[in-house]
Write a structure and sequence with these properties.
globular; eight-stranded mixed sheet; alpha/beta; 8 strands
């Protein structure tokens, strides 16, 4: 007698992923894509332009070296004054080599501090590396361009008396960053063809700086020519040359930091 086989008339159910789990997976996917997009954006900075690459070569009484502290521009003659340089947001640190080299030719030791993801806000205290690497330097100044200027201000404010001077290039301190007693002198230099710099912010933060701070607007200067990395989105074209624009930065440094020797 044949064995009778019975089958169920109901289809087998498949287990579905709960709705909340699918929502979480979707959110995590969006976050991952956003994070990866941000990293790719940050790691594809502006510059350096060819003249900046050329300025990285040693010569003309300046030795250039890449160290743990950053890109160092050292004058042949031993000096006692050093400068920490914070680069602008999403700008390759090497883009500031022309200015750093020009300052080194004046006798200053200059250290351009590369920052995480090319954003100084990710590495606000990299200036410590430069100073720790050069205990022989007796007096330090700090320069920051754009976002780098804001972070240079934050860094200096947290270290009262450690920096003799601060120079803003198209920058201003973040709200609440009190520098009145933190640094000896401050200079703020900016162009009249810089639509990215909000003058209302420059003016509203003056109360955070020493009363004798110097503000200089440069006719014909734009945002990008404080470095050498080519055109910057949203910027205006400068009507003065790069060398002339940088000369104002050099003058500002000499005025607030004093001679290199």
């Amino acid at each position: 007698m044949a064995e009778k086989i019975t089958t169920s008339s109901h289809p087998r159910r498949t287990r579905r992923t709960p709705l909340y789990a699918r929502i979480i997976a979707a959110v995590l996917g969006v976050v991952l894509v956003a994070v990866l997009g941000f990293i790719i954006w940050a790691e594809t900075p502006l510059g350096p332009a060819p003249d900046a690459i050329a300025a990285l070569e040693s010569g003309n009484s300046v030795t250039v070296a890449r160290t743990a502290a950053g890109w160092e521009f050292a004058p042949d003659a031993d000096g006692q004054v050093g400068i920490v340089f914070y680069p602008g947001g999403r700008v390759d640190a090497r883009s500031y080599a022309p200015l750093a080299r020009a300052l080194a030719e004046q006798g200053y030791l200059v250290v351009i501090t590369p920052v995480t993801l090319n954003l100084a806000v990710m590495s606000p205290n990299v200036g410590d590396r430069a100073r720790d690497a050069h205990p022989e330097i007796k007096r330090w100044g700090i320069i920051g361009h754009s976002l780098g200027g804001a972070m240079a201000a934050t860094h200096a404010a947290a270290r009262p008396g450690e920096y003799a001077a601060l120079v803003f290039l198209a920058a201003y301190p973040p709200d609440g960053t009190d520098l009145r007693e933190a640094v000896g002198k401050v200079a703020s230099v900016y162009g009249d063809r810089d639509p990215g710099l909000k003058m209302e912010n420059v003016n509203s933060t003056k109360s955070l700086l020493p009363t004798d701070s110097v503000f200089t607007q440069i006719k014909g200067a734009n945002h990008a020519q404080w470095g050498s990395y080519g055109p910057q989105p949203g910027d205006m074209s400068a009507t003065i040359g790069p060398a002339e624009q940088l000369s104002y930065a050099i003058d500002a440094v000499r005025d607030v930091l004093g001679p290199a020797k």
